[in-house]
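User: Working on a comparison across species. This one is DnaJ homolog subfamily C member 7 from Dicentrarchus labrax. Can you predict its structure so I can line it up against the others?
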Amino acid sequence: MLKPTVAAAAAAVVVVVLQAEGFKEQGNAFYSQKDYSEAFNYYTRAIDASPRTASYYGNRAATLMMLRRFREALEDSQQAVRLDDCFMKGHLREGKCHLLLGNAMAASRSFQKVLELEPANREAQQENKTAETLLEFERMADFGFEKRDFRKVVFCMDRALAVASACHRFKILKAECLALLGRYPEAQSVASDILRMDSTNADALYVRGLCLYYEDCIDKAVQFFVQALRMAPDHEKARLACRNAKALKAKKDEGNQAFKNNNYDAAYQLYTEALTIDPNNIKTNAKLYCNRATAGAKLKKLNEAIDDCTNAIKLDDTYIKAYLRRAQCYMNTEQYEEAVRDYEKVYQTEKTSDHKHLLKTAQLELKKSKRKDYYKVLGIGKNATEDEIKKAYRKRALMHHPGSHPDRHSAATPEVQKEEEKKFKEVGEAFTVLSDPKKKVRYDNGHDLDDDGCCDGRDFDANNIFRAFFGGHGGGYSFDSSPGVFFFSSFDILNLIETRYY
Ligand SMILES: *[C@@H]1O[C@H](CO)[C@@H](O)[C@H](O)[C@H]1NC(C)=O
Ligand SMILES: *[C@@H]1O[C@H](CO)[C@@H](O)[C@H](O)[C@H]1NC(C)=O
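Assistant: Here's the predicted structure for DnaJ homolog subfamily C member 7 from Dicentrarchus labrax:
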């Protein structure tokens, strides 16, 4: 009774083995035609028919590698060597999958196994060296990250990814460093690539959030951090970033609200606190510096405001608002060259008529600042009244008049005398312009700079002005007609200064 059954069973096994071999042959045919999905289907049927044949898994692993499904390829090659520990190609394939997935240690173990089976295997020797190199780049990258040398990490990860092209871990580390280097579009594209393949990858979610956070899209960033923490509740980096993002947003909003309420002291303080939260967040911090500069300018802290704008520009040298704010502060502190430089930068970047006007105004102020300042010559403010201008002239003209201090002047060296003469001339020139309403307006507007001539001093005869001013007021002083020679006693001068002549 038994015998026929055994025979039948044996026959059935032969049929199945033949069938499995048939599937494998078909798989091989598709594989050599590079039709890997069909090859995969036939190898799968071969495995279903004969699940304990190592070479079927080996072949399907090779196919899966061509389909770039490396994780599944790894599982198949592991199954192959589990069934047959002497299956050399299986070990080699497992090693290659480990390499592609970025697991250098495991790869090395597989290649060692091949070399135990066949010490002269060139491919295993070569691949083992590649695994060693990969380990070395990983070590360098870890060291670089510790030292915050993110460029080095990116370099090492690029080298590592040339070998381990399917390694998410390396891609994420590279993306994180790109984000820390401010290369957000690149970082974002790497993170998005991974999320397309694996939407629950907490690291990729974290890096995507980090890019948004660094680009000052804080609300959206928080959503990604929260998602990352949902996928991996222990994700320390995501937790920290989430906390920073929320704190930064809260302080910044508070500061902006205080500013809107015209509470500049409070705004200044809140921006200062916000700036301590995360020194890595360049874009938000640039805005915070610029906002603090605006509050500072309102508080008349112009030098601090200039420093804040400079810090904002250091963080983001394309930040037009910071250049504009700084230029305004330079104008208000009469640092016109600096103002012109900033407005030039602004106008070069954004050629609007407003920017052009600002630049022109600054350029005019700069020119005006370089010409003789008649107000300073007379020692008066820009708002001085007609009366004040006259008083100032009287005082200064007498002070520097060649005849005014006979004692001092006779004892003075020729250099001092010359200096006094020059000042006397300047005082006359200043008075001529500022006492004439038309000339004064032209001077104040800088129109005297448009055409040459008017104010270069040659048109002035200081003595004529002096004579016109003091003469005919019945003071009893007679002036010698020869220019520059006057006779005053010290007493007369005192009188002259004390008395109102106009
Ligand atoms: C293979 O690489 C490992 C390190 O990855 C090394 O320790 C071992 O000596 C290498 N083996 C051969 C045969 O080169
Ligand atoms: C000068 O007058 C203008 C307007 O008349 C005023 O805004 C400005 O504050 C005054 N400056 C000084 C220094 O008094």
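For your comparison, note: The chain has three domains: 20-137, 246-369, 374-500.

User: Helpful, thanks.
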